[in-house]
Amino acid sequence: MRIAMMKKSIMKNSINTSLKNLITAVATTAVLLICGSLQAAEKLTIGITLQPYYSYVKAVVGDKAEVLPLVDEGFNPHNYQPQPNDLRRLKQMDVIVVNGIGHDDFALKVIKAANRDDLIVIEANKDVPLLPAIGQSVGDGAVNPHTFVGLSTTIQKVYTIATELSKIDPDNARTYRKNARKYATEFRKMKRQAMLTLGDLDTSGMLVATTHNAYGYILQEFGVDVAAVIEPAHGVEPSASQLQETIEKIRASKIDVLFYELNMPSRYVETIEAATGVQLYRFSHMTHGAYEESKVAVEMKSNLDTLVEAMKFAAKHSLADTVVTAPSTTHHASINKQQGS
């Protein structure tokens, strides 16, 4: 009898212990789920206006925040008109990162229309040394808004974004700064590799033209000056007289290279090539296509490869011109020297 009662007591205690363990496990799971939900709810939603800024912000925040484009991919920033969906997306954002000096003016209109006084706006270019805009239809005091095409300007903007986000979200500040340094290092390595590839190449006589005012930031980092800008304004094709004037300038200046935009076909570019013999090279603006974290790094590397190729061509072309125009005695001496080496 006593043994039976002991067994019954043991079973009861065992059941109670199991029940307590089950309740504890359920409670722990519930707490974890609630904490996880709260953490997810507390994540910042960061808006961006252009594809490069998706890459920048995503690289900085990683999984610590949500990155939300204001506009669907495939739009043209130069003629885009705000849509109802833009306002709906804007309402989801805690903060938005803007170029702020042109190229995303449509976003500033949306922000104004939304009456979001609580929305934090990060101006990525606020600490970037800006170049003046170039073009026949450019107003006084206008700046070149294409800072996303440059390496040093990209690095500066990434640090600005990380700094400003750290103020808004101090709990993740360390992660943001660490990620910004890692991302910046990637671009520094790219530039260093391009410089090493160029080595002692003499490009002092290199003269280039561009279809429009976009590539100054990357070109200045390699000591390349723009001698002519063809479009009177971005996306505006030159008139017949402006085109003829450009052709004459390219001929007179002996411009070697014409850079034009990868994603915007320009009918007049082939006309200039045929009339002048100038060598054509394409750059990406990084403001077309999908929003991708890797976009800027991939397309910046492609632009650098293109620039190195163009600089090598210009150096070779300049050397050939020197040989052709030199006096015959010098020419023969040069040939004899090469044969003797």
UniProtKB/TrEMBL annotation:
GO biological-process terms attached to the record: cell adhesion; zinc ion transport
Chain coiled-coil ranges: none
Record keywords, A-Z: Ion transport, Lipoprotein, Signal, Transport, Zinc, Zinc transport
Keyword Zinc attached: yes
Keyword Transcription regulation set for record: no
Record-linked Pfam families: ZnuA
InterPro entries: AdhesinB (IPR006129), Bact_metal-bind_prot9 (IPR050492), Lipoprotein_PsaA-like (IPR006128), ZnuA-like (IPR006127)
GO terms for MF: metal ion binding
Family to which this protein belongs: Belongs to the bacterial solute-binding protein 9 family.
Protein name, entry field: High-affinity zinc uptake system protein ZnuA
Organism: Moritella viscosa
